[in-house]
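During the reporting period, our protein records have gained a structure token line. One record among many is quoted in full directly below:
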Amino acid sequence: MAYHKKIIDAIHPYGDQLICSLANICESLIRFPKAADLHIKSLSHPDDWTTQIAPQQNSLLHQIQTLRLQHGDDPYLRASCLSMELILYLSCPYPGMDLTSTAGELRDALSALPVRYCLFMDLVSCQLMLGAVAANEGSEVREWFVARIRRAVTTLRSRGWERPLEVLEKGFVSDNGLVARFRELWREVDS
């Protein structure tokens, strides 16, 4: 989901609560990994994670899942919510979570969208990258995501763009765990 904060603030008084709720969750999701990383570095005991970070993570997860359940018939919202869940799961360990099944739900949600994205959109799709890094190695779900990204890279190369992934490599400045996973995926797809 992409949005401009000033636009969200401008439409808020006119009643589009769904987009405002989604934007608020996105803002919290952007702040969460940084806050979790700071807490993890300052923890004196591993059990402190459950009292300091887990409540924030659970609250954010509850907000995302509630929004998804309330508006489950909207395929775009469903795909956005599943992507946000994967970001949350990948940003900080979530005990016992099967990310392959969540990535599979994201695959199904993306497949149900009434619009098929072009190769350029597949190349830069955060949702495709999230699904690929979340799903287990060798799983059918992961292969679906990787195949879409690889098809975009291969086709763009055949049209003369030698290094199509360089646009992504230049776009990410920070190197948190999620970006490191994306870069590993790009190396795999780029080979």
In short: Residues 1-97 form one domain. The chain has a mean pLDDT of 80. Residues 13 and 27 are 19 Å apart (CA to CA). Residues 17-42 form the longest helix (26 residues).
